[in-house]
Write a structure and sequence with these properties.
Order of helices and strands: EHHHHHEEEEE
Distance between the termini: 22 Å
Low-confidence stretches: 1-32
Strand order of the largest sheet: 1-2-3-4-5-6
Radius of gyration: 14 Å
Structural class: alpha+beta
Length: 146
């Protein structure tokens, strides 16, 4: 089941055949939170990055993504997340929920999320951000994790 949520404009309908989406699609569940909630988390993550609030940004990341950042950077998420070169996200343009996974297009970024089935904003966590589509290939994401 795919739930779509769009805000103005034609928005780009995105394929989820990406490395970042693979863990998101695993274990689809009918208990997943909705697309507008996923959009809210993606916008909140981008706003935290834009405001220089590393603690809030890291709190919105999936545990596997935090682990990947800390492992690859050799420092805590809060010490490095603001230096990763993530784009200013902007506002939400579209959101699609696929079982436990979601993809949200912001003005300047594409964000992948995974839901824990909680049904509210806290039910979504960012698995990949700073993602740019590549023709016929998976997204290229600055931040990604399991």
């Amino acid at each position: 089941m795919v739930e779509r949520h769009r805000r103005g404009g034609s928005g780009l309908l995105v394929a989820l055949a990406t490395v970042a989406a693979a863990p998101v699609l695993a274990g689809c569940s009918a208990l997943a939170p909705d697309a507008p909630s996923a959009e809210g988390v993606a916008v909140a993550f981008a706003a935290a990055i834009d405001a220089g609030n590393a603690a809030d940004a890291c709190a919105l990341l999936a545990p596997g993504t935090v682990e990947e950042i800390e492992s690859s950077e050799g420092a805590s998420c809060e010490d490095v997340v603001l230096q990763l070169g993530l784009p200013a996200g902007g506002t939400g343009r579209s959101a699609e929920a696929f079982g436990r996974g979601a993809i949200v297009e912001l003005d300047n970024d594409t964000v992948f999320l995974v839901g824990d089935g909680g049904g509210d904003v806290r039910g979504w966590r960012v698995t990949a951000a700073g993602c740019e589509p590549r023709p016929e290939r998976p997204y290229d994401c600055t931040v990604k994790g399991g």
